[in-house]
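Help: why these numbers?

___
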Amino acid sequence: MSGRGSVPESGRLAAFLLATTVAALAAGVVAWFLGAAGVAAGCWAAGTLLATVPAVVWVVSALRHGRTGVDAIAVLALVGTLVVHEYLAGALIAVMLATGRALDAAAERRASRDLRALLDRAPRTARRRTATGVEEVDLGVVGPGDEIVVAPGEVVPVDGTVVGADAVLDESALTGEPLETRVPADGPVRSGTSAAGAAFTIRATATAEDSTYAGVVRLAREAGAQDAPVVRLADRVATWFLPVALLVAGGAWLLSGSVGRAVAVLVVATPCPLLLAAPVAIVSGLSRASRAGVVIRGGGVLERLAEARTMVLDKTGTLTGGRPAVVGIETAPGVEPDDVLRPAASVDQVSPHVLAKAIVAEARRRGIEPTMPAEVVEEPGIGASGVVDGRRVEVGRRSGAEDAPWVRAVTERAVLDGTVLAWVRIDGGPVGALVLRDPVRPDASRTLRRLRAVGLRRLVMLTGDRAAPAREVGAVLGLDEVRAEQSPADKVAAVREEHARAVTVMVGDGLNDAPALAAADVGVAMGARGSTASSEAAGIVLTTDRLDRLADAVLVARRSRRIAVQSAAVGMGLSLVAMVVAALGFLPAAPGALLQEAIDVTVILNALRALRPGRAERTILPEATRELLHRFAAEHDDLRDTLAVLRETAGLLVTPPPTAPPPTAPPPTDGPALVALRRADALLTERILPHERAEEHQLYPALAAPLGPEATAPMSRTHAEIERLARRLTAHREAADAAGRIAPDRVEDLLACLYGLHAVLALHFVQEEENYFELDHDRGAASGPAHTGGPHR
C-alpha cells in the first residue's frame, strides 16, 4: 500500500482504476449481448491489462516494505487469465481488485485529515495593550509579559494570568464541560478557552507556540501521524494462501511437465473470495451501520472495531447529555415549587447562560409560560436579576441567607449530590433553589451492558470534570476506571496507555477530544451535537444523538467481520480443493474458470448476509408494544416530579412548626404534616398505583414475548413492594384522620414508609427507563435521571 504522504494520489488512482475497469467490463458485456464476441474479449482483455500494471507496482511496493498481500495473488490470477484467454474472468478480477483498492484508499484518508476545525478556530492576531492604547498585532510577536485584551466571545490566544477584573471563561473547548468558570485576578487562563462574559485583560506567560491550544493541535497531528497502517483481513489470509497456490501450481508443472496444468491451478486459485467476498461482507456491514446512524469511514476501521477489547469514553456529551437539566426544586417553608420556578424562568428567558436555558426549558415542560421581565441585569459568573410582576427577582449562585437552616440543608445536599444550585430571591429574600445536573443518558447503562456482552473487557471514562461527579457517573454505570480533570494531553496519554494493552476505541464529542480520538485505534465521535474537529478526527461518526448506536456499531462490525472470515475461509477452502483437482489434470483451465465463478457466487451470496440485522443487534417490537412504551414513558415524565411530595412530607414530620412548644414537650405532628400526608396518600392511590398496575397488566405482558418473561420479573417484584408500602401509608393516614392528628408513636414507621417509597420508586423509574423505554428507538434520548454536577452559576 502507498504511504501516508501519497494518500490523495493513491485515492485518485484507485478511483480511476475502478472507473476504467468497470467501464471495460460493462462495454464487453454490451458487446457480447450484441453478438460481437471478439470486441467483448478485447474489452475484457483491456480491463485486465489496465489492472495488471498498477497491481504489479503495488506488489513491488509491498515487497519493499517486507509485506506480501492479496495483490500478489491477483497479479498471478490476472496474468493467468490472459494466458488461457479467460478474459471475462480477468475483467471480473480487475474490477474486484480496483474495488478493494478504493476501499483501502477511503480508510487511509481518515489518517490524513488535518483537523481543520482546530486550525480554523485558532486566533491569528491578538489585541496587545501599549502605552498609547490597544493595537492588533500578529500572534507570533506576542511574548511573556505582554498584556492582551480579550473581547467577549473571543478565543484566548496565549496562556496567561488575569489582570484586574475577574474573567468569565467558557472552557468547554478544552475540558468538554458546558459550564462557565470565573477566574479571579492573577488566576491562570489557558489559550483555547473563550470569553463568556465581559472583556478582560491577561498577562501572557508563554508564546502562542508554547501555549495550551497550540499543544492540542500538535497532539492531534502527531496522534494521527503515529496511527499504524491497517493490515487487512485479505492480506493476512493471502500471506499463507499465496505460497500454497504457487506450491501446488509448481508441483503440477514439475510432475506433469504441462504448463497448462499450472495455469489451470492459478485460474482456480483466483482470490475472488478475498477480493470480492470479504470486501462485500465489510461493505455490507458499512451499509448496515449507516442505516443505524453510524458512519464508518472504511473497511479497515470496521475491522479494527470488531477486534476492540477496550473502550475509553468521554463523560460530557457522551455518557451524559452535555446540557444541564433541572432535577429538583428546593423551596423555603410555605413556598410552592411553581412559585420559585415561574419568576426564575421569567428572568432567565433573556439570559444566554447555559443554566438559564435549562431553567426556562423546565418551566415550559411543566406548562409554565414565563412573563416578560423588566430592568434585567446580567452579572457574568453571578446571575441575572429583573423585575417580574412588580417584584425584584434574582437568580444566581448566592442565596442571600446563608444562615437560614433550610438554606444550609439545601447547600449540604447539593454538595453531597454533586449538583448545581441556582438560588432564587424575591425582593431580597431567598424563596428557593433550582437543582441542576448534567444527566446521564438514559441509554448509557444499557449500552455499556451490551458492549460488555459482545466482548469489550474494559470500559474507562476520561473527563475534564471534577473528581466527585466523575466518580458518581462511574459508579452508576459500573465503569472499570474513571480519570477526572484530564487535559487533552492527559487524554492522549491515557488512550496510548490503553492501546499498549489491547485494541482501543475512544468515544468523544468535544473539541478537546479530537487528539485522543486520533490517537486511538478507532475514534468514535458523537457527531449529532459534537464538534467538527472531533468528527474530523474520528474513524466513526454517530450521526444521531443516541449512545446505543455505539453498541449497534460494535455488533455490526463483529458480525460483518465474522461473515467476511467465514466467506473467505469457505471460498479459499473450495479453491484449494479445486487446485488439487486441477493439478491432477482432472480440471482444465476453462472449466476451472467456470467452477471458480460458481465458488465466487456462493461466497458472495454468503457475504451479503451482512446486510441483514443479526439476532443480537436490535430487539424488534410490535407497533402496539412501541405505543405502550411511549405511553408509559410519558407517564413517567409526569410522575417523576411527584416523588418530591414524599420527601417533603417526611420533612414536615421531623421539622417542628414555627410556633414550636418547649423542647421538653413532645413535638406536635398534626397540622401541616397531616395535610401533607393526605396529599401523599392521594398521590399514591390516584396516580402512582394506577400507573404501576397498568404497567403490570398491559406493558409487561407485551414485553414478555420479545424479551422473555424473566426480563420483567424483577420489576414485577418491585411493583409488589410499592403496593405493600402504599397500603401501609394509607393505614397510617386513616389512623391519623380518625384521631385528628398523627400519633407520635407512628412517626418512626411512617418515615420508614415515606423514605422507602421514595427510594423504591426513584430506582424503579430509572430501571424501567433504562431497560424498557429505551427500546422505543423513535423516542430519542429523553432526559433521565441526573448524576453529575458542575460549578455553581
Observations:
- The chain is about 55% helix and 15% strand.
- The first helix runs from residue 7 to 33.
- The mean pLDDT is 78.
- The longest strand covers residues 429-437.
